[in-house]
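Agenda item 2: nicotinamide-adenine-dinucleotide complex prediction
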Amino acid sequence: MKIAVLPGDGIGPEIVTQALRVLAVLQSDGLKVELEEAPLGGAAYDQFGAPYPDFTQKVCRAADAVLLGAVGGPQYDNLDRPLRPERGLLGIRKDLGLFANLRPAVLFPELANASTLKPEVVSGLDIMIVRELTGDIYFGEPRGMRTNKDGVREALNTMIYTEPEVRRIAHVAFGIARKRSQKLCSVDKANVLETTEFWKEIVIDVAKDYPDVQLTHMYVDNAAMQLVRNPKQFDVIVTGNIFGDILSDEASMLTGSIGMLASASLNETKKGLYEPAHGSAPDIAGKNLANPLATILSLAMMLRYTFEDEAAAGRIEAAVKKVLAAGFRTADIFEPGMTKVSCSDMGSQVVAAM
Ligand code: NAD
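Presented output:
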């Protein structure tokens, strides 16, 4: 197993360091992994003049999985667009063919008060949103702004999916649903958009390979509403790029704590990029204040989805649960009565709980 480690910018190096301490526990218990570090984003621009330089590309291509902190920072905001840190992210996603974005929205019961919704609505929430990441209206051609033949300015984007694109994401989602509660909800707008009517038709066809998974369908407007009304009715949701973009942000905010949310982006060979859902938090960078749990939970996802080591993934998740149950909180999830800890102390607590 080879892991490319990309600490990135801002709080990235601090939170990745804690995840590597957790990984070291597994290594000392026999897990065989090789690590290679490379810069991405602003750090890569500083070192190599590009956000996803050849060196980093080589390291990532050779790895089985990539662990990323976060990229971006105000000092890079005035660079030309192709040099900005966020372009490094787009570059790596494209280069590695990462088409399946997995965004869990998990609310540990101990953190139920962090949500803006009533604790009884969200406590114990555990949703997995599977979002297609490389197609849909974000990439469809033609696109652009123009003046039409009547001299009127107009703009257009094209919502398009090919059958293989829908099939491969459907297989990923059914595979995940099979490992969880065997429930999959496909979100579309099939009543209005042919693209998503086509999506629905193909998902129904793929379902024949997964008779053990119960497939349901929901229109995206209803799904947005149901996520707030009764989110615990969902287990795995699969949807296209634009609906997934919006719904995964909505679902993650049900939990109220951005520092807790992991994510994974996978390609066809299960190679994956694993990163917290949050950004580089420049406001708290270098202060040892960041919550490292999203990154630690991203490491657990790596073990589950790329290395298929369910025991190791479960061990990390159980350790995080134990630390929260014992009352340890970084500043972002702190409540009176709990014990406030720094980023590195939180890492130490998880290591101890392991
Ligand atoms: P952000 O997620 O970095 O921060 C939003 C707020 O949440 C801030 O107050 C921050 O302090 C807090 N926060 C985020 N992660 C935290 C953690 N682990 N522990 C405690 N608090 C945490 O979003 P932003 O401020 O909009 O963006 C900052 C930079 O990050 C920008 O340059 C942006 O482009 C970049 N960004 C990168 C990614 C990525 O690398 N995948 C994602 C989003 C934003």
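Discussion summary: Residues 11, 15, 70-73, 86, 89, 258-259, 275, 278-284, 290-291, 294, 332 surround nicotinamide-adenine-dinucleotide (CB under 6 Å).
Owner for follow-up: CH.
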